[in-house]
Amino acid sequence: MNTCQITSIVRYYGRSMYFTADDMACIVGGVTMGLIPEPEIMKNGEIAKMLHADLKSAREFTTQVAKIPYGKFKAVAVAPMFKLNFEPDIVVIYGTTAQVMRVIQGYLYEKGGRVHFSTGGEWSLCADSIAQAYIAQDIALGLPCFGDRKTALAQDDEVTVTFPYSMYDKILEGMRQTAKVATYPTPFDIGFPQMPDYTLTSWAVEYRRKHLTGK
How far apart are CA 173 and CA 185, in angstroms? Predict the structure, then answer.
């Protein structure tokens, strides 16, 4: 099977899964998880040539893909959060852009700064999400790739956000704190911006005072 297919079974059926190199059908998934050595077809870019103008551009893509070093793991266990009976290295979340926005806001609540996004539009769950988050020990965003969509039921409105499990409690607390102003689901209102005065221009504050609040 593929890494994305195994993850799909976990998230759609609520099962816990365990896999080794012997279970992998996908070279990319095996390499990026560190379960199998990188073959020449991946080093020279040939494996990605169908999405690139030539072998050079394909190789430029494959060499920059995040890969957990071979031999780091002998097996990978995947489970739904509500069934965890072990401490995972990485948390993977599929969500809408609004849901993932809330996770990012929770992540940045204490840390500040920005979340930077690196993707090649392919090999997304295994490389852009899991491997990238594990190697950097930081949050990573991903766009489900063609394989994830075709063989693992990733939906058009989904993106992924992945982060080390050690960040889980802090992100959750950041989401709780920011929920006071960034509610989800987001209420729709195309009227006058419902924002604090300090976030508005002076004319907007005056307009609201005169015409909307009467204060």
Answer: 18
How many CB atoms neighbour CB 8 within 10 A? 20
Smallest CA-to-CA distance from 77 within 86, 64, 65 is with: 86
Span 30-46, average pLDDT:
96
Looking at the fold, whether 204 and 168 belong to one and the same domain comes out as: no
Give the structural domain span for 208. Answer: 189-215
Asked if residues 162 and 91 have their Cβ atoms less than 8 Å apart, the reply is yes
Where do we find the tokens 């997304």? Answer: 124
Q: What angle do CA 19, 3, 81 make, to 5 degrees?
A: 80
Q: Which residues pair with 159 in a beta bridge?
A: 95
| Whether pLDDT at 174 is above 70 | yes
Same domain, 92 and 157: yes
Percentages helix, strand, coil for the chain, rounded to the nearest 5?
50, 10, 40
CA 143 to CA 49: how far, in whole Å?
A: 20
Predicted local distance difference test score (pLDDT) of residue 165:
98
| Together in a domain, 30 and 70 | yes
CA-CA distance, 78 to 197, in Å (whole number)?
46
194, 132: one domain: no
Residues 179 and 204 in one domain: no
Q: What residues are paired with 76 via a beta bridge?
A: 19
The answer to whether the pTM exceeds 0.85 is: yes
pLDDT at 214 over 70: no
Q: Do residue 177 and residue 194 come from a single domain? A: no
Total domains in the chain come to 2
Mean pLDDT of 193-201: 81
